[in-house]
Amino acid sequence: MQKSGKKIAKLLMILGIREGYLLVRNVYGMVEHPKLTMNRIVGQKDLSQGILIFGLPIGLWLGWICILLVSRIFIFGRLQFGVLAKISFLFISFLVSLFLLFLGNCFYTVIKNPRSYGRSFRFLGIKKERKDARKA
Fold first, then answer.
1. 114 against 4, higher pLDDT
2. Is 37 exposed, middle or buried (CB count within 10 Å of its CB: 0-12, 13-18, 19+)?
3. What is the pLDDT of residues 36-75, one digit of tens each?
4. Would the pTM count as exceeding 0.70?
């Protein structure tokens, strides 16, 4: 029983390191070349990375809401929101919305134009058009 617990802990650690590395690589890739990175995520059929990439702005938004709630409770003893808290909430919500629109645009572009992004869309049923050299 103790050996299986160590094996499970070791596998979880290795999996966590791998997913963390892929997340950092994909976030960096989204900054440098977003459409190629989105193509790689869709092409690898790696659902966990897709969830992490699209969940990152949502997680940041929820984290900011938690920070606002906890700070208001500790500062005022009740949920009293001032002008700065309201403005910061609206600003973070606006940034998250922009980022989600950007990610959605990248995903739509990759799905809409499979010819320019290679063979990675066979699982969607989209076939790449080939130009026949004999017809020309």
1. 4
2. buried
3. 888 888 777 778 888 888 888 899 899 999 988 888 888 8
4. no
**pLDDT 10s digits, 73-129:** 888 777 777 888 889 889 999 999 998 998 888 888 888 876 555 555 454 555 555
Buried b (16+ CB within 10 A) or exposed e, 73-91: eeeeeeeeeeeebeeeeee
Give the closest residue to 67 by CA, choosing from 53, 91, 93, 85.
85
Residue with tokens 């009740």: 78
In a domain? residue 128: no
**Number of domains within the chain:** 1
Q: Residue 34: CB partners within 8 Å, gap ≥ 6?
A: 102, 106
Domain of residue 40, residue span: 2-116
Q: How many CB atoms lie within 10 A of CB 93?
A: 13
Could you tell me the two tokens for 72?
């208001």
Amino acid at 14: I
- Could you tell me if 72 and 79 are in contact, meaning their C-beta atoms sit under 8 angstroms apart? yes
Measured CA to CA, the distance from residue 14 to residue 27 in angstroms comes to 20
